[in-house]
Design goal:
The chain has three helices and two strands; from the N terminus they run αααββ. By secondary structure, the chain is α+β, with helices and mostly antiparallel strands.
Length: about 80
């Protein structure tokens, strides 16, 4: 499947709550019938995305919370 990183990134970004790898697999499978993903592939992509968003050019980061993944504003950009 093309652009799998981007599809997973947009799925996590658009979710209001943390998304688990199993949920990601379910959504991708429904959106792209015939696509077979395993949890290791999804976990690897999520790890890649975590590394990507650690860069100082991004104001947000990808965190693991409650077994799922969610974007959060980095502390230095979050002022109460």
């Amino acid at each position: 499947m093309e652009n799998l990183h981007q599809h997973i990134e947009s799925l996590v970004f658009s979710s209001e709550t943390a998304v688990t790898p199993k949920e990601i697999i379910g959504v991708i499978s429904k959106a792209f019938p015939g696509t077979v993903l395993d949890e290791q592939v999804v976990e690897s992509i999520l790890l890649d995305l975590q590394h990507k968003f650690k860069s100082d050019i991004y104001a947000f980061e990808l965190r693991v919370i409650g077994g799922g993944y969610q974007f959060f504003t980095k502390p230095e950009y979050h002022h109460p």
